[in-house]
């Protein structure tokens, strides 16, 4: 009886242990009553994957990650073993991805991307592994350009602030204050001018209709004056003007060609020289008349008085000087 009781206790303890082990593995996804195939995939790193994580096909759990270890002594890559239920078959061309889920709180998981064609994968085969960053990598790739742009913007803003600080020294501040003061004075003057103009318009408001009436009256008179001028008179005036312009053009052409008195004066050099010579002679004659008036006009009320020799010499010298000055 004593051994029988101990045997029962041991049997119960063994069953409980087996049940516990089975329950733990069942929770992890292991099913001792459902045989699995083991497959392998090589990656540059585990990407945060841990043993016990699920393996999915199109979002459906088909197995578990059973082991992760270094692939070579160089420690430059890892090999992941995962177990998949035998009832799920796929080709050797299928790709095994490691990546995060679709949310920030999801864990890293393994997914089998089915690629049709080729032989079916067998137990112990090594499949192509791809390490996918998932959502976090996408967020990182999106944030990186924004971070670069933000850095450039901050650098530009810092440069602009430095320039503003350089401009805002004491001298420039004084200039800006002076400019603002001048602008304030200008605005004040403009306000006063506007007020004066408004006051003037208020004072002259009664005169504005009268001015408008005068303008209207003047416009009416101008219209009546234009109406009195007939089209025929206007055409006749234009014809006379054209005729006058034609005659003036003809006279100018003749003068340029040397015809007529004016043309000879303009074109004949000898006539011009004769006129110059005659002018000089006339100047000399006038100078002599002024110097010796008694030579040309001899009028005496009390009788004729003979000039002396000294007066004749003086008059001759004076006339010679006048002729020389005229010749110059």
Total helices: the number is 9
Cα-to-Cα separation, first versus last residue: 175 Å
Overall 3D geometry?
A: elongated
Q: Determine Rg (CA atoms, Å).
A: 63 Å
Count of individual beta strands:
7
- In which range does the helix fraction lie? 55-70%
Main sheet: strand order = 1-4-3-2-6-5-7
**β content, as a range?**
5-15%
Major beta sheet summary: 7 strands, mixed, barrel
Mean pLDDT across all amino acids:
76
Q: Structural class of the secondary structure composition? A: alpha/beta
Structural account:
By secondary structure, the protein is of the alpha/beta class. The protein is 60% helix and 15% strand. The protein has helices spanning 2-28, 134-167, 170-203, 207-228, 231-257, 260-267, 269-291, 293-296, 309-327, and strands spanning 36-43, 54-57, 60-70, 78-85, 95-100, 108-113, 126-131. The chain has a 7-stranded mixed beta barrel with strand order 1-4-3-2-6-5-7. It starts with a helix and ends with a helix.
Describe the secondary-structure layout.
Layout lengths: L1 H27 L7 E8 L10 E4 L2 E11 L7 E8 L9 E6 L7 E6 L12 E6 L2 H34 L2 H34 L3 H22 L2 H27 L2 H8 L1 H23 L1 H4 L12 H19 L1
Parallel strand pairs: 1-7, 2-6, 5-7
Antiparallel strand pairs: 1-4, 2-3, 3-4, 5-6
Helix pairs in contact: 5-6, 7-9
């Amino acid at each position: 009886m004593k051994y029988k009781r101990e045997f029962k206790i041991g049997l119960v303890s063994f069953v409980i242990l087996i049940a516990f082990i089975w329950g733990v593995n069942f929770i992890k996804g292991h099913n001792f009553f459902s045989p699995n195939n083991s497959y392998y995939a090589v990656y540059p790193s585990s990407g945060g994957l841990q043993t016990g994580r699920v393996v999915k096909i199109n979002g459906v759990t088909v197995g578990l990650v059973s082991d992760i270890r270094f692939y070579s002594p160089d420690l430059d890559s890892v090999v992941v073993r995962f177990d998949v239920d035998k009832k799920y078959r796929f080709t050797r061309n299928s790709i095994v991805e490691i990546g995060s889920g679709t949310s920030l709180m999801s864990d890293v998981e393994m997914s089998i991307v089915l690629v049709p064609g080729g032989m079916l994968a067998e137990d112990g085969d090594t499949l192509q592994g791809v390490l996918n960053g998932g959502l976090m990598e996408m967020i990182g790739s999106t944030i990186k350009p924004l971070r670069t742009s933000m850095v450039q913007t901050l650098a530009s803003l810092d440069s602009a602030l430095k320039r503003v600080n350089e401009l805002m020294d004491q001298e420039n501040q004084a200039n800006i204050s002076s400019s603002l003061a001048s602008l304030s004075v200008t605005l004040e003057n403009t306000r006063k001018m506007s007020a004066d103009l408004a006051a003037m318009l208020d004072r002259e408001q009664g005169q504005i209709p009268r001015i408008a009436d005068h303008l209207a009256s003047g416009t009416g008179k101008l219209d009546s004056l234009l109406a009195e001028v007939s089209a025929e008179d206007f055409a006749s005036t234009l014809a006379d003007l054209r005729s006058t312009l034609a005659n003036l053009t003809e006279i100018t052409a003749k003068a340029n060609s040397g015809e007529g008195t004016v043309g000879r004066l303009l074109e004949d050099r000898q006539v011009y020289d004769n006129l110059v010579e005659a002018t000089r002679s006339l100047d000399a004659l006038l100078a002599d008349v002024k110097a010796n008036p008694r030579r040309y006009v001899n009028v005496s009320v009390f009788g004729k008085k003979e000039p002396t020799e000294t007066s004749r010499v003086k008059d001759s010298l004076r006339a010679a000087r006048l002729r020389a000055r005229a010749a110059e």
